[in-house]
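Tokens for Riboflavin biosynthesis protein RibD. Go.
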Amino acid sequence: MKHALEMARLTIGQTHPNPSVGAIVVKNGRVIGVGTHMKPGEPHAEVFALQQAGDEAEGADIYVTLEPCAHYGKTPPCAKAIIDAGIKKVFAATLDPNPKVAGKGVQWLRDEGIDVEVGLHEEDAIEINKDFMHFMRNKRPYVTIKTAVSLDGKMTANSGDSKWITGEAARRDVHENRHRHDAILVGIETVKHDDPQLTTRLPHGGINPIRIILDTHLSIPFHAKILTDKAVRTIIVCANDASESTEKQLNEIEHIDVLRMPTDEIYLNDLLATLAEDKIMSVYVEGGSKIHSSFIHKQLFDELHVYMAPKLIGGPTSKPFFNQNGFAEVSQSVKLTFESIEQMDDDLKIIAKPKR
């Protein structure tokens, strides 16, 4: 199963809206077939592994990181392929929370007399597809907040300058995370101040996330890179009273979609529900400080990535990444659990999750 999990990890970020899955076929202690799901519309991991095993699959075991599907979509159900191949036993790391599957694949296999064991390395399997799992269970995108700060928690110097707080290793890791997320989100002030591309720039390429810009009054400058580069679909979110003429101009740009919310401000709960309807399963929130603070204050985040540099910035007008008015008492603070701390050259990467 560990090898199947490694196969699944290879395709994180490139299978949307499907989960990343790995499969290994074993017979008499030998690996006779391996597979992973490459991208939507192509065969699933089990099919690739069974094709490689060929006739030897009869009487073999298959290890798969997610319950085999039991429905017809763009590809036939994997449960049927397993049955037709004559597999003797199936080890599934975890059940699939998709209502179209949700135990149906396992039941189908058992009904055909195939032995099925569920739960081997389940936590690892859930972590690989945490976005997919969360989306299927909660009908809301998995939200990751990312920030780069100095040791004293500052995102910028007094002038607003923020390039570069962290080093190349940390910035490369950010691009890996852009590749893995369906969408990236920033506020309009970040666009105006930094004119970012918000694309994935890795040595081997990578997939660009959908760009989401929160721009209540549609004040985005038309020379902004995200409007002119045509790199990827870009959603500009505005409030109900934003300029209709500006909306029309923006919608005429090929890769731009304006999302007008039905309220006089952008409510994050409503926005996430709307993004879920668009099958956006994961959102990478890159800032700025006001946007971070809104997600944290409303506790609408599932993971926090803090890249911390060994620098002290200080200053009365430099910005912390969480810039709400704060709390009267420590007991009112947002409680977190540290998941991991990793050294990245001179910097640290801290991953934390809300304590719920």
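The domain at 139-354 is CATH 3.40.430.10 (Dihydrofolate Reductase, subunit A).
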